[in-house]
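ugh ok fine here u go
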Amino acid sequence: MSEKKAATGLTNKIEAELRTSFGKGVARKLRSAGKVPAVVYGHGTEPRHVSLPAHEVSLLLRKANAILDLQIEGDSQLALVKDVQKDPLRQIIEHIDLIVLRKGERVEVDVAVHVEGEPAAGTTAELDSKSITIEALAVSIPERVTVNVDDLEAGAHIYAKDIELPEGAVLVTDAETLVVAINVPAEQDLGDEPETEAVEGEGEEPAADEAAE
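structure:
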């Protein structure tokens, strides 16, 4: 993917083959052949089951909120990656759900928050919300939004409403949602001196009859 495409959210063309056979056995054969089963649905259209080239898809999915330009029997169909199912052990993509997009359509998506910069000496920036929800043009979805904490003092708070969004994007998350807080790290609790268990009889006054012996 070129840097320009990554920056602008432009889609990526990928060949998609329609399939009419289903089931776990068919899915295994597809994966063995280097393909991934997927379904495309939305906007009242009939779901279309397709297979996609596994290697190309895995590269595209490195980008959050990936949009694919599916080439299906000569037609182009924009689709947003909705869900990716992976084998929990091998992390192999087993199935993908794709949502049909229309040109000019706006969609709601969760976008990761990236913190950059260094706050004032002796403080740390704590990320309270790892992502925010925005509404944006389907072809202009940012991969992330950035929060700069350079030289911010302890007690400073950055809320969702303070984050600069890409042109045309609208905040959906509650504006007062705390995203980043600048705090002074709590002093390391060294704990109390370790207690020692008294050895039976240690430190006790001898009984009168023992003292007389």
